[in-house]
């Protein structure tokens, strides 16, 4: 059996979503090459795709005794530690992962959005966003993520506002960034500044906001600024939401990225 060809075949099957067929090829390989770390790592990744967390952990742990596993493998290992309640181990592995120089850019949004679900790991989610900003300072979404997690960690409002100003500067047409910045400014009592930020949102965009809480804050800002046109648009949209009872979500939260390993 040509081990390299069989390994490539297993990888191909995995990428096609043919997990059981991939595992069959991997089992054959391990019968003849039991000390090949790459095979054990692939096995752990396939098992994770099947939600076999404990089995995946054992395979990835075996791989780590044989080779330095990839950043993707380390990410899956850390996630599964967290999923089964081994929080201390997960925190340790995530901390090591975020220090890796070879950590792919595509993993950073997945790491930050995943860790953001756990209050005790919010600081690591912020670290992931900071790393993303350092690598690509022109990515407005990474700045928004930073601001979100800074807010959860109770950073000073002015620091958060400065980060959001950067996001607005990078993507001035994005209403989410403007609403996020106005939200922080409104909380700080800076209504004039908040109004100057949100008055740049197109009226057609205001009518698309699905968040009742955001609309209420905008109504307050437009009311204080005596901007009757925008006040009326937001009020009518709020009434529409309330009458149809559409579930809403805050506009200022960064979107959750899909896990790139599953794409």
From TrEMBL:
SUPFAM superfamilies, per database record: TPR-like
Domain of life: Bacteria
InterPro entries in alphabetical order: TPR-like_helical_dom_sf
Protein's recorded name: Uncharacterized protein
Species, as recorded: Gimesia fumaroli
